[in-house]
């Protein structure tokens, strides 16, 4: 009879599709046929192997997918035929030569002649060519061999060979054209659901600086599905987003909109390469020039040559949601068509704020008919305001320093960028005063940079802006401190200004508004701007918000200012933000047109800022406008919590070559 190759797995254990190699002398599983053949006995057995057990083991081997294995019935037939010949030397030691089974394996007490009785193994069965080295060649075991990984892929397979399919797994590789990625595990530690929430990622911190910008892709992994999502990569240089070297620098930032359930986590992957690719394109939030041909002369949009413009229009979902005014002043009207104080000569500011659905939120309206001529003014001053010293009296002019765009100053410039997720504006202005009697000649005492983001959050009917402000004195001049703590309206970091009219003059224009601030202990305080004759001031330490809402009909909207982190003054972190208001009621201070009021964010230490020639400050805050409802404060609370507690980030580097088939 021709001999048949019987692969005996000597010292090899196959577990869950992964191969693990065990020492020849180590014990293996009790039911391993290889163990039975190699050691002559079942693990833990005291005597030889009964013939029927060995037949069963050999029959099991016959079920192998190896093509040249004998079928159980043929092998058993060979054994029976050998037994019929009556030969009793079948298992003699010289049959099992050393080149078949090592001597230390086939010791006499292992394969004694009485163990391998004649009816067990015929000579041609255990012939040398049965257990020749080529039986255990790679082509026999290859189909069942698999390298164990040090991690689990979310593919339903036990990749790390721990005999379980783990839930803590990483997403399969999305696209092998991008050989590197950063796995970001974002954890929402709040009770608020993050929906289309802006998230800024610093390239150096996340760990993908040095990548080619054109190669960057972002994928969200959720529910077993990998979906590519829009992102914006902001490559900063000294003038804004003008760095075009196609390299992600350490100071660049990646902006995403993320969705994370409350008290849960989500996974995002940043794919990239060190070679250039065709850059991906995503829809952009658009910026347009307004009032072109007049106004400030150095305004550029999307890298175009500078031109003149009175304002910029920002479009969210194709609809203009506000105007960024660039002219030097707002026309506060006091029946003589002059500015009440130099504080009215405000530079960059927000006017004509409206929601994406077209609802107007506190617009600036010019009234040229009826009982008088003048504006109903609402505007948001974006940067710092400092009065030089203390306020003296209303009939006298005051030296107010604030960001101003000055045509004659080469430093002054406006650069706007239509980008995915958010339009970006970079305003370089002067810290400037040109009050004729107090600042003559005009005083340029420093520089201010305002960086604003207008977010497009899809179906969210609200306006959300983030502003970063940095300012520094010029190293030569100083400003006197404001020593009257009650006069907080004369030193602020961002403020909302409004002007109303007396009921007798413009009854149809009276708009009753209420300002509310939440303090650090969770209590709220409010003041109403109305026609009463009062002069009401208050400041409250806050880490949440200060907002204004309509009190009378029609209720058009709510605007909130929300701090991010704490302001830094001269490199030191301030102890707290302050939310303040000043309600200057009808005729309370002798103003015939009603009142000029304001509310703002500030810090008590800012009253002294500028008294050093090299003083600096930097801070961040958000402007949030939304529809009025009974949940005005609840919505502000939710937004404040999202700002105060962004998701925690765990970043892990992974490479395509570590993934099978990649």
Radius of gyration, taken over Cα atoms and rounded to an integer in Å: 39 Å
Largest sheet: 15 strands, mixed
Task: State the separation between the terminal residues, measured CA to CA.
Answer: 48 Å
Number of helices: 7
Number of domains: 2
The CATH class designation of the largest domain is: Mainly Beta
**Share in β-strands:** 25-35%
Low-pLDDT segments, ≥5 res: 1-48, 61-84, 86-142, 333-340, 366-375, 588-593
In the CATH hierarchy, the architecture of the largest domain is: Distorted Sandwich
Mean pLDDT score: 76
Question: What is the CATH topology of the largest domain?
Answer: Beta-galactosidase, Chain A, domain 5
Shape: globular
| Percent range of helical residues | under 10%
Q: How many strand elements?
A: 38
**Structural class based on helices, strands and sheet pairing:** mainly beta
Question: Could you explain how this protein is built, in words?
Answer:
The protein is mostly beta strands. The chain folds into 2 domains: 133 residues, no CATH class; 358 residues, Beta-galactosidase, Chain A, domain 5. It contains 7 helices and 38 strands. It has a 15-stranded mixed beta sheet that branches. A 9-stranded antiparallel beta sheet has the order 10-13-14-15-20-28-36-35-31, with no helix packed on it. Helix 2 runs antiparallel to helix 3. It is globular, with a radius of gyration of 39 Å. The two termini are 48 Å apart. 38% of the residues are buried. The N terminus is likely disordered.
């Amino acid at each position: 009879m021709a001999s048949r190759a019987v692969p005996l797995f000597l010292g090899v254990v196959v577990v869950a599709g992964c191969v693990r190699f065990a020492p020849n002398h180590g014990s293996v599983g009790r039911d391993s046929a290889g163990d039975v053949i190699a050691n002559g006995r079942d693990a833990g057995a005291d005597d030889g192997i009964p013939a029927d057990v060995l037949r069963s083991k050999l029959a099991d081997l016959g079920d192998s997918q190896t093509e040249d294995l004998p079928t159980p019935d043929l092998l058993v037939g060979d054994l029976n035929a050998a037994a019929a010949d009556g030969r009793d030397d079948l298992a003699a030691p010289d049959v099992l030569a050393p080149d078949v089974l090592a001597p230390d394996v086939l010791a006499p007490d292992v394969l004694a002649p009485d163990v391998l009785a004649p009816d067990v193994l015929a000579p041609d069965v255990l012939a040398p060519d049965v257990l020749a080295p080529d039986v255990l060649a790679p082509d026999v075991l290859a189909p069942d061999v698999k390298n164990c990984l040090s991690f689990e892929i979310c593919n339903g397979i036990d990749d790390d060979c721990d005999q379980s399919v783990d839930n803590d797994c990483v997403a399969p590789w999305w696209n092998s054209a991008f050989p590197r990625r950063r796995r970001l595990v974002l954890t929402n530690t709040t009770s608020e659901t993050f929906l289309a929430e802006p998230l800024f990622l610093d390239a150096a911190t996340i760990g993908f600086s040095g990548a080619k910008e054109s190669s960057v892709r972002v994928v969200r992994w959720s529910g077993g599905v990998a979906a590519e999502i829009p992102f914006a990569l902001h490559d900063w240089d000294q003038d804004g987003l003008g760095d075009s070297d196609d390299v992600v620098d350490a100071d660049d930032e990646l902006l995403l909109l993320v969705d994370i359930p409350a008290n849960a986590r989500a996974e995002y992957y940043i794919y990239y390469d060190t070679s250039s690719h065709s850059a991906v394109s995503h829809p952009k939030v658009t910026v347009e020039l307004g009032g072109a041909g007049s106004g400030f002369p150095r305004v550029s949009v999307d890298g175009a040559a500078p031109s003149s413009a009175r304002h910029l229009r920002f479009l969210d979902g194709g609809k203009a949601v506000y105007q960024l005014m660039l002219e030097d002043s707002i026309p506060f009207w006091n029946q003589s068509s002059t500015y009440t104080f130099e504080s009215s000569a405000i530079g960059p500011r927000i006017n004509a704020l409206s929601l994406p659905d077209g609802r107007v939120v506190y617009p600036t309206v010019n009234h040229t008919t009826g009982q008088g001529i003048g504006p109903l003014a609402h505007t948001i001053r974006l940067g710092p305001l400092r009065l030089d010293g203390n306020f003296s009296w209303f009939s006298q002019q005051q030296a107010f320093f604030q960001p101003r765009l000055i045509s004659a100053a080469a430093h002054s410039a406006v650069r706007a960028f239509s980008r995915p997720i958010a339009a970006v504006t970079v305003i370089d202005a002067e810290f400037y005063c040109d009050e004729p009697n107090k600042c003559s000649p005009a005083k340029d005492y420093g520089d201010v940079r305002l960086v604003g983001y207008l977010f497009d959050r899809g179906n969210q009917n609200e306006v959300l802006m983030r502003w970063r402000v940095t300012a520094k004195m010029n190293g030569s001049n100083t400003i006197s401190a404001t020593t009257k703590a009650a006069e907080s309206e004369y030193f602020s970091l961002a403020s909302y200004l409004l002007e109303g009219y007396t009921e007798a003059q413009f009854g149809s224009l009276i708009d009753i508004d209420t300002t509310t601030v939440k303090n650090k202990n969770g209590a709220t305080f409010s003041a109403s701007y109305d026609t009463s004759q009062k002069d009401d001031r208050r400041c409250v330490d806050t880490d949440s918000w200060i907002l204004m809402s309509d009190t009378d009909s029609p209720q058009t909207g709510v605007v909130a200012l929300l701090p991010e982190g704490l302001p830094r003054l001269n490199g030191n972190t301030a102890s707290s933000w302050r939310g303040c208001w000043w309600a200057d009621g009808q005729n309370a201070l002798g103003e015939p047109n009603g009142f000029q009021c304001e509310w703002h964010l500030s810090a008590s230490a800012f009253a002294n800022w500028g008294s050093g020639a090299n003083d600096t400050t930097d801070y961040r805050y958000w402007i949030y406008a939304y529809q009025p409802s009974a949940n005005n404060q609840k919505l502000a609370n939710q937004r404040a919590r999202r700002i105060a507690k962004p998701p925690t980030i765990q970043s892990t580097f992974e490479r395509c070559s570590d993934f099978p088939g990649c």
